[in-house]
């Protein structure tokens, strides 16, 4: 999970600290461009093809992690 948090911070281009329980709407850098960037990262890093509508349903960082977690 630490690697995921590091990669997410890179996607968001932020040095802000957050945890798996952080609510996405409290992260200043989380916006529509971040959704697209997250989808690209999910494909490259985890081989997961995600659609924006699924990503937008996420409320917390853990929700994002669950989208890319290996089953």
Describe the structure.
The chain is 55% helix and 0% strand. The protein is mainly alpha-helical and 71 residues long. The protein has one domain: ACP-like (Non-ribosomal Peptide Synthetase Peptidyl Carrier Protein, Chain A, Orthogonal Bundle). Helix 1 packs across helix 2. The longest helix is centred in the middle third of the chain and has 15 residues. The model has no long low-confidence stretch (mean pLDDT 94).
Summarize the topology:
Layout: H1 2-12, H2 32-46, H3 52-56, H4 61-68
Quickly name the level 1 CATH class.
Mainly Alpha
List how many beta strands DSSP finds: 0
User: Do you know the CATH topology?
Assistant: Non-ribosomal Peptide Synthetase Peptidyl Carrier Protein, Chain A
Helix content: 40-55%
Rounded radius of gyration (Å): 11 Å
Biggest sheet descriptor: none
Distance between the termini: 14 Å
Overall average residue pLDDT: 94
The CATH superfamily appears as ACP-like
What is the count of structural domains? 1
What oligomeric state best describes the polypeptide chains here? single chain
The string of secondary-structure elements, in order, is HHHH
Structural class: mainly alpha
Which descriptor suits the 3D outline? Answer: globular
In the predicted model, the low-confidence regions spanning at least 5 consecutive residues are: none
**Into which percentage range does the β-strand content fall?**
under 5%
Q: Give the CATH architecture.
A: Orthogonal Bundle
Number of helices: 4
């Amino acid at each position: 999970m630490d690697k995921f948090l590091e990669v997410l911070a890179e996607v968001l281009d932020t040095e802000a600290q957050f945890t798996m329980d952080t609510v996405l709407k409290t992260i200043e850098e989380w916006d529509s461009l971040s959704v697209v960037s997250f989808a690209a990262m999910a494909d490259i890093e985890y081989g997961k093809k995600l659609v924006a509508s699924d990503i937008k349903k996420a409320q917390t960082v853990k929700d994002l992690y669950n989208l890319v977690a290996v089953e």
